[in-house]
């Protein structure tokens, strides 16, 4: 039974410590990551919010450590002679670490546009255009997207305004079914 237990649960140890990983050091609550180095020299990072652990490059580890030091110093109020290093690594890696009352300093970090929404909309629109006829695609592009008046489109293309209106209605019906 003891052999089965050791084979089935190899991570449990009698000492209670796992020798493959060192103790995770305490970091400020406001800092989003726990940082540590393993015995074999690997730089490890754990995201506090998700608990995800990953190995990172030494340069990334240096940047995160510098940010952690800067954050610790800002709360303790102590200054150091490493002001040049602080200026180089002054990019904010944690948005939660910004003071909430300093709206002016953090306003430039917020992107007013949602590019993910724009890309998704463009992809849906491309798929929708595939189900339209050539005439409907042209009317969709010029009348509905660019804002040309249906009468002007009809006059420019030598068709009646009522047929353009019928095509627009057909496009809207297909759009209701598609979206």
Short description:
By secondary structure, this protein is mainly α.
Helicity, as a percent range: 40-55%
Briefly note the structural class of the backbone: mainly alpha
- Summarize the helix and strand pattern as letters: HEEEHHHHHHH
Amino- and carboxy-terminal Cα gap: 60 Å
General form: rod-shaped
Please explain how this structure is put together.
Helix 6 packs across helix 8. This protein is rod-shaped. With 179 residues, the chain is mainly α. A three-stranded antiparallel β-sheet has the order 1-2-3. Strand 2 (43-47) and strand 3 form a beta hairpin. The protein contains eight helices and three strands, in the order H-E-E-E-H-H-H-H-H-H-H. The protein starts with a helix and ends with a helix.
List key phrases describing it:
179 residues; mainly alpha; three-stranded antiparallel beta sheet; rod-shaped
Task: Itemize the secondary structure elements and their pairings.
Elements: H1 2-8, E1 33-37, E2 43-47, E3 53-56, H2 58-76, H3 83-88, H4 103-106, H5 115-130, H6 134-145, H7 150-157, H8 161-178
Antiparallel strand pairs: 1-2, 2-3
Helix pairs in contact: 6-8, 7-8
């Amino acid at each position: 039974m003891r052999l089965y237990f050791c084979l089935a649960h190899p991570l449990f140890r009698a000492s209670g410590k796992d020798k493959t990983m060192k103790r995770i050091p305490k970091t400020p609550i406001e800092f989003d990551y726990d940082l540590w180095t393993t015995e074999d020299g690997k730089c490890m990072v754990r995201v506090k919010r998700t608990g995800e652990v990953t190995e990172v490059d030494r340069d990334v580890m240096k940047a995160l450590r510098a940010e952690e030091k800067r954050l610790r110093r800002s709360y303790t109020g102590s200054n150091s002679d490493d002001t040049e290093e602080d200026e180089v690594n002054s990019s904010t890696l944690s948005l939660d670490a910004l003071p909430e009352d300093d709206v002016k300093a953090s306003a430039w970090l917020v992107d007013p546009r949602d590019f993910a929404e724009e890309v998704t909309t463009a992809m849906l629109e491309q798929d929708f255009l595939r189900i339209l006829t050539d005439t409907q695609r042209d009317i969709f592009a010029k009348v509905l997207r660019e804002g040309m008046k249906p009468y002007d489109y009809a006059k420019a293309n030598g068709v009646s305004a009522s047929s353009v209106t019928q095509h627009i209605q057909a496009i809207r019906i297909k759009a209701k079914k598609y979206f």
